[in-house]
Amino acid sequence: AKKKTAxxxxxxxxxxxxxxxxxxxxxxxxxxEKVYLSVVTPRMGMWKARFSFDPVHKSEYxxxxxxxxxxxxxxxxxxNTPDSHKWSQENYPSISKKHTKYYNVWKDxxxxxxxLEEDGLEIGVSK
Length: 127
Hints:
This protein is of the alpha/beta class. The protein has 3 helices and 9 strands.
């Protein structure tokens, strides 16, 4: 909670996965020199939290600019550390199982979170 991270990637199509009790996914088609925003939203699972992506679409920026700025200002930056890499390695079997199981469920969904090229902001416009 109250964290934010940045991830640099090459332009084109990508698939993001978020893991908790289950896994969820988001497609992204991004352009160079742009910033894209997505909120990871929690919901209660049976034993622990489940998470989903909520991409911020260009049409939402103007209406939600003040709200997004408050969220961004209240969050602290996080980066990978040796401990986070260790956790990832130790939990890789569980993560891999969740990917296999929940990706197939996600593929069959009619509505999926998708970040489109036009959702990006020119660098320097966003925090």
